Amino acid sequence: MRTGLADSARNIRRYALEMGEVQGQGYIGQALGVADVLAVLFGHVLRFRPDDPAWAERDRFLLSVGHYAIAAYAAFAEAGIVEPSELADYGADGSSLPMSAMASSTPGMEISGGSLGHGLGIATGMGLGLRHRGSSARVVTLLSDGELDEGSTWEAAMACAQFGLANVLAVVDVNGLQADGATVLASGSLVGKWEAFGWTVRRTDGHDLDALVTAFDELTAAPTGPSILLADTRPGRGVPMFEDRERAHFLPVREDEWAQAREQLT
Amino acid sequence: MIASFADPGQRTVQAPFGRALAALAEERPEIVGLSADLTKYTDMHVFRDAHPDRFFQFGMSEQVLLGAAAGLAEVGLRPFASTYSVFATRRAYDFLCLDIAEPRLPVTVVGGLPGLTTGYGPSHQATEDLAILRGCPNLTIVDPCDAVDLAQIVPALAALDGPSYLRLLRGAVPSVLDEYDYRFELGRAVAIRPGRDVLIVSTGLMTMRALAAARALEADHVDVAVLHVPTIKPLDVDTIVAEASSGGRLVLTAENHTVAGGLGEAVGAALALAGRAVRLGRIGLPDEFLAAGALPTLHDRYGLSTAAVVERVRQDLSGRAQRRGGESS
Ligand SMILES: Cc1ncc(C[n+]2csc(CCOP(=O)(O)OP(=O)(O)O)c2C)c(N)n1
Ligand SMILES: [Mg+2]
């Protein structure tokens, strides 16, 4: 099973590199960094029907980080939700795969992103509503560490705990980066912060597939309230020349480097 | 994805806002700069690098950004707080309104990516920032045309003892108004170009487009006047009403903003309230969430490009001629 997940993670990275090359940009550092987390989420955690993104009992995957759209599309392609051939259309005018994720554009995209700090609030409502309706579906939200700066995230964190939403699972891509550089407010004890807010917390290496599987299994076994996985990741992971590059919100890639990046992909 | 609104080959100035603020801060030690994880993207990095001890990074927390700006002003500092327009208005409006505007604090909120200046989609396109803020009492609202305008606006806002909102143009900003005899004056609309047939009342970067359209229409022997309205609030109603009701010209407003609640509606209301029966056309963004894509394509599609303005003037002129013909026959 782990080899299956490793293959998935590699495929997600390859799809992301292909999309990045089409546009010459598109948050490729983040996509490579979060690929292992997405492989485990789509390959191990989420219940969904690839050919029926509107299936009522599906687990909801909320991409709170709309700028990670390129990573989500790659994961959708690997999960069979999007045809891999459609990825060539990424970011084109009128494409169903816009650079910033939009629910109105892409089947399987549950919320419109771009403005950060929205995912957990919507997850709160979805979690409440699904529980109210007797559904066993779960709500899984991907956040970034930058989103932990937003007051709205912490308002929702308290609401999820207050309502005891055991069907809400948050995942944070802790890559140490935000737009101006290193993370600002979200440093310090993240585990302690979330625990203090009433969440069950795990923190793992976001590139260790075994550790990710174990952590998700523990968090989803018999939750009594909301839970969160803090995944430490490295932007550009899997492409050595990108891993070594100075960390930046926009990883700069020269036109001629894409082919080389694909070759380097481990 | 192309994200500059400068036309190819156009003269530009790099980061005019950041330069103007950094220069002004040399003489005014109470000026401080704040940003919410968008320092590099709002040209605030120029100020930060010049005056690191007077710059405060808040991380991506727009509500605290504006609340803290109010607090800094309360204790005697002169804050310029930058983020994108969408986040200043949609996310943090309550803080702008009650913490900054109500107490009339001298704070300038600097909003990047106003109107349609990014192809990134609705989350970043501040198509209704003016509509939101025009309803905010005490607030001065400024929408510069270009780098020349910005360089004069920064000291003017810093001299203002009250709250203001600046629609920022960032990065390589076109330089256009230095070709005309222009001076920015807070609260004043300025006739930049005379013309007998058409009057375009424009604000922000649409003044640049109106001027380019006017030049292009010379070939058609259409004489287009341009009245630039950089201050959206308080609006220079007297000048606008006088210009729009003189000479029997076709009158069009032009703004980088939705037609709902922006300059066009303000001018329409001013004319109606003054009792002037002027037929008004509005150039602006449609009342809808806009598409993502390359900026030049989007400006064509939504009617903001020079070519689209030229076409609109031609159409409205021929519609007017037809109506006139109908009336006289
Ligand atoms: C509410 C809001 N404020 C500001 C922005 C602009 N912005 C886009 S990405 C980003 C950085 C956020 O941190 P993170 O997601 O951790 O960045 P990354 O790891 O992708 O570098 C910022 C400030 C935004 N999209 N939404
Ligand atoms: Mg980050």
Set down the secondary structure blueprint.
The complex is a heterodimer of chains A (266) and B (329).
Chain A: H1 2-23, H2 28-45, E1 60-63, H3 69-79, H4 119-132, E2 139-144, H5 151-162, E3 168-174, E4 177-178, E5 181-182, H6 190-196, E6 200-205, H7 209-221, E7 227-232, H8 240-243, H9 257-264
Parallel strand pairs in A: 1-2, 2-3, 3-7, 6-7
Antiparallel strand pairs in A: 4-5
Helix pairs in contact in A: 1-2, 1-3, 1-9, 2-3, 2-7, 4-5
Chain B: E1 12-14, H1 16-27, E2 31-35, H2 44-50, E3 55-57, H3 62-74, E4 78-84, H4 85-91, H5 93-101, E5 108-112, H6 129-134, E6 140-142, H7 147-159, E7 164-167, E8 172-174, E9 190-193, E10 198-202, H8 205-217, E11 224-228, E12 231-233, H9 237-244, E13 250-258, H10 263-273, E14 280-285, H11 295-301, H12 306-328
Parallel strand pairs in B: 2-3, 2-4, 4-5, 5-7, 6-7, 10-11, 10-13, 13-14
Antiparallel strand pairs in B: 1-8, 6-12, 9-11
Helix pairs in contact in B: 1-2, 1-7, 3-5, 8-12
Magnesium ion is lined by residues 144-146, 175, 177-178 of chain A.
Provide an overview of this structure.
Chain A is of the alpha/beta class and 266 residues long. Chain A has helices at residues 2-23, 28-45, 69-79, 119-132, 151-162, 190-196, 209-221, 240-243, 257-264, and strands spanning 60-63, 139-144, 168-174, 177-178, 181-182, 200-205, 227-232. Chain A has a single domain (3-264), classed as 3-Layer(aba) Sandwich (Rossmann fold). Chain A contains nine helices and seven strands, in the order ααβααβαβββαβαβαα. In chain A, the strands form two sheets. A five-stranded parallel beta sheet of chain A has the order 1-2-3-7-6, with helices on both faces. Chain A has a two-stranded antiparallel sheet with strand order 4-5. Chain B is an alpha/beta fold and 329 residues long. Chain B has two domains: 12-174, Rossmann fold, CATH 3.40.50.970; 187-328, 3-Layer(aba) Sandwich (Rossmann fold), CATH 3.40.50.920. Chain B contains twelve helices and 14 strands. Chain B has helices spanning 16-27, 44-50, 62-74, 85-91, 93-101, 129-134, 147-159, 205-217, 237-244, 263-273, 295-301, 306-328; strands spanning 12-14, 31-35, 55-57, 78-84, 108-112, 140-142, 164-167, 172-174, 190-193, 198-202, 224-228, 231-233, 250-258, 280-285. In chain B, the strands form three sheets. Chain B has a seven-stranded mixed beta sheet, with helices on both faces. A five-stranded mixed beta sheet of chain B has the order 9-11-10-13-14, sandwiched between helices. In chain B, strands 1-8 form a two-stranded antiparallel ribbon. Chain B is globular, with a radius of gyration of 20 Å. The mean pLDDT of chain B is 96. At the A-B interface, loops of A face helix 3 and helix 4 of B. Bound molecules: thiamine diphosphate and magnesium ion (MG). Thiamine diphosphate sits between chains A (30, 65, 67, 114-117, 144-147, 175, 177-179, 249) and B (37-38, 60, 87, 91). Magnesium ion is lined by residues 144-146, 175, 177-178 of chain A.
